[in-house]
Amino acid sequence: MSIETPPTAKKVPSERVHHGDTVVDDYAWLTVKDDPETIAYLEAENAYTQQVTSHLKPLQETIFQEIKGRTLETDLSVPTRKGDWWYYSRTEEGKQYGIQCRVAAEGDTPPELKPDESLPGEQVMLDANELAGDSDFFSLGTSAVSPDGTLLAYSVNFTGDERFTLKVKNLVTGETLPDEIPGIFYGGAWSADGTTFFYTTVDETWRPHKVHRHVIGTPAAADVLVYEETDERFWIGIGLTRSERYLVLSAGSKITSEVRILEADDPTGEFRVVRPRKTGVEYGIDHAGDRFLVLHNRNAENFELATAPIDDPGAWTPLIEHREDTRLLDVDAFAGHTVVHFRRDGLTGIRVLPADGEPYEISFPEPIYDAAPSGNPEFVTGRLRLGYTSMITPPSVYDYDLQARELILLKRRPVLGGYDPDDYEQFREWATASDGTRVPISIAVKKGAARPAPTVLYGYGSYEISMDPSFSVARLSLLDRGFVFAVAHVRGGGEMGRRWYEDGKFQQKKNTFTDFVACAEHLKAGGWSSEIIARGGSAGGLLMGAVANLAPEVFAGVVAEVPFVDPLTSMLDPSLPLTVIEWDEWGDPLHNPDVYHYMKSYSPYENVDERVYPPILAITSLNDTRVLYHEPAKWIARLRDTARGGPFLLKTEMGAGHGGRSGRYDSWREEAFTLSWILDTAKVSE
């Protein structure tokens, strides 16, 4: 196939009938991953994309060098205290992956580290560069130190399919033990004595459904199945309370939770149910001395915090009652205080509940920001570690002194090349949606940049996931070229509380798409934006496909990364990864005709027409287990066959998963490719 013209996907009509409706899918053959013809087509698309973007290679290299030049390549994290050790990670210039280290602890103040120097007594626990070797892809799924600090359980993956192999390292001797368990999922938890490790495995639809108990030093074949979840809507996970007194086995669908607990010093005991599952009730649990803390939404849409007796954890007494304006996100129990992470007015916050005093909230200086507890494994402590960032403030690590009630800045991520936050500005705007709802927009610009300006408008809008204000080194390559960068906090996300999410799912999913278009129109009408490039990934890729159909004339270009653009086909097939559990997010079109017809009315793949579409770049990964590669492949094929405009480009990573390339230098090059396409599409010259 010549690369002078776009590849043409052959048409092999495949019919399906649901609820009296006949659908013809000409490109269903692309779902056969191991068919040589499928691989050949994807490779032809890659060759075409490479050919038509070949003129951008100098710009790609320039942007890559900008990202690299602003990044302190040899760096380290702020140490976190756990037991007798300070734990931290290093990155080294020229190496793709991080290195996990620790050093013996003294006192509560983290040791002062220098990027190019090792501390006396520093121990390298795990060097991911050595583990990765020459592999094109590498990721860690688990890294958990036993409570006594002598063993490290870790898991590795070399393909991107998110199925890991568990290994155990003796941190005293440095040897890797014979224990090796393939096919496990993320996470895991140790027993109190460090003799036993609990882990999860997935079924054929990639749903974690079993918890196993492994005794260190015994063969994997002897592992005991602790729990199996038979309801296909529920995922399971295993962890420890902060006190490490209890193992917590959680089962959850998109809308319902059920938690089981077991004393961590009794690993062969029986887990007991905290409260039996009830559809629509979500809850989580932590241990605090003589009681449990329970965060739940029973008769509390935005959640409330309750306490429960140790011997009757299902008896909940309100501690922080429900508020219409405040969404409680998480709770962390410590020996002398409790910390609540919350969301209000589109921003996150932290509330401290001392055991012997009045509750209070920590204040932060900027008008828009994101703050969250982070790295607090110690149960007995007088400090709270938290992370902070904004659109112009690089990620920062603070300790909050609970006695003095003051923030202590431990580290702000260095940005090289003379970056000065005072050279940039951030704003909060509000668009008005078609139904009158006010939709927040976060904006970052360089001071003095001309307006209206070319703009990247980012969106997601699903699963109650919030796109909170955050910093990006790569984004500076846009801002310094006069771009506006904006995030549309559309319904379906969680920025404005649980109701914001509910109003952007099921039969109200189209609010997500119309909100995004309203934000784009607001930016143009307000003098912020000239050309707008829309960008989103995964479920945000569904948003990209939907708005391209809804208002193609509004956007100068669209970047859709691992995009969920064929939701109807996927949600009709319960054998696919994630489908059944996703019915609680999108609805069940297989059994409900109303859901079927509503989803068909917005599905990007189903609604491509003959109008003029903007240029579209779709990026996917062959081994993605969450949004399968064939969704964007089919979408681009249909766009190219049906729509006018474009060009429509498909780029497939042939050896990566949902998160794309794994190494940091590889991921920087991928971002440089995307940003160069954005600049070219917006007709911004160097």
From TrEMBL:
Keyword check for Hydrolase: yes
Superkingdom, taxonomy of origin: Bacteria
An individual GO BP term: proteolysis
Peptidase S9 prolyl oligopeptidase catalytic domain ranges (all copies): 469-683
Pfam families: Peptidase_S9 (PF00326), Peptidase_S9_N (PF02897)
InterPro entries: AB_hydrolase_fold, Pept_S9A_N, Peptidase_S9_cat, Peptidase_S9A, Serine_Peptidase_S9A
SUPFAM superfamilies: alpha/beta-Hydrolases (SSF53474), Peptidase/esterase 'gauge' domain (SSF50993)
Keyword Hydrolase among UniProt keywords: yes
Molecular function as annotated in GO: serine-type endopeptidase activity
UniProt domain Peptidase S9A N-terminal: residue ranges: 6-412
Keywords: Hydrolase, Protease, Serine protease
Annotated family: Belongs to the peptidase S9A family.
Name listed for the protein in its UniProt record: Oligopeptidase B
Organism phylogeny: Bacteria, Bacillati, Actinomycetota, Actinomycetes, Streptosporangiales
Gene: ptrB
